Amino acid sequence: MAKKVVLVTGASRGIGKAIAVKFAKKGYNVVISCAHREAELMQAKKEIEGYQVSCLAFLGDMGDMSTCETMFQQIKKQFGTLDVLVNNAGISYIGLLQDMTSDDWDRIVRTNLTSVFNCCKLAIPMMLSAEKGKIINISSVWGNVGASCEVAYSATKGGINAFTKALAKELAPSNIQVNAVACGAIDTEMNQWLEEDELIQLVEEIPAGRLGQAEEVADFVYHLGYKGTYLTGQIISMDGGWT
């Protein structure tokens, strides 16, 4: 039986890499992408191939449609299909909205939200042909409740949440499920800017008493991508009870 194929964007490190490795461990052929970190992307590819699966690593900006089209052409050529799409590519911006430049705004919207549109638009025809598919968008609790000094980030994640709910309704008749995981504070490089006292204060606010692990997110995303055809259109918070 042909191996299933998963695409994970933003997969050179952190949550994205953990998700890609999880699917590889389960026997999926894996496509990974990132915008800049080529050395880390190739290291992730090597690690994934250690599980006796094929891995296509693609360096490029998922916020650019022509770049995405090139990647999907390679996916079609190498694998012929795509079973699971995990939209994980994302960046943060910490600071007052009044200090944010238009270029900063455009960059975070393109990276976090336009990338989701681009990859979904290109993945859907392949899933329609197969009469099945899973789309999982990595969101944030800030998309649910908003965060001071992270207005643009919160807006993009809120956009992902609404996008997820709407697309799920559109694709449900075609046996394609669309869900999002709204992550809380996960122990990745995105949180390493915090001072030690700030980190302690953050952990004290979380009922679970700790940060989440990227591998925990990966386990849950795999479950969403592997099982269940009735769960769709859901924004599932994974935050240790924080929000």
Summed up:
The protein is an alpha/beta fold.
Features:
16% strand, 243 residues, alpha/beta, seven-stranded parallel beta sheet, Rossmann fold, single chain
Commentary on this structure:
The model has no long low-confidence stretch (mean pLDDT 95). It is globular and about 50 Å long. The longest helix is centred in the middle third of the chain and has 29 residues, at 102-130. Helix 1 (14-25) crosses helix 8. It has helices at 14-25, 38-49, 65-78, 102-130, 142-145, 151-171, 196-205, 214-226; strands spanning 5-8, 29-34, 55-59, 84-87, 133-140, 176-183, 235-238. It has a seven-stranded parallel β-sheet, with helices on both faces. By secondary structure, the chain is of the alpha/beta class. It has one domain (5-238): 3-Layer(aba) Sandwich (Rossmann fold). It contains eight helices and seven strands, in the order βαβαβαβαβααβααβ. Helix 2 links the parallel strand 2 and strand 3 (55-59).
- The largest beta-sheet arranges its strands as 3-2-1-4-5-6-7
Strand content: 15-25%
Shape, principal axes of CA atoms: globular
Count of DSSP-assigned helices: 8
Tell me the layout of helices and strands.
Layout: E1 5-8, H1 14-25, E2 29-34, H2 38-49, E3 55-59, H3 65-78, E4 84-87, H4 102-130, E5 133-140, H5 142-145, H6 151-171, E6 176-183, H7 196-205, H8 214-226, E7 235-238
Parallel strand pairs: 1-2, 1-4, 2-3, 4-5, 5-6, 6-7
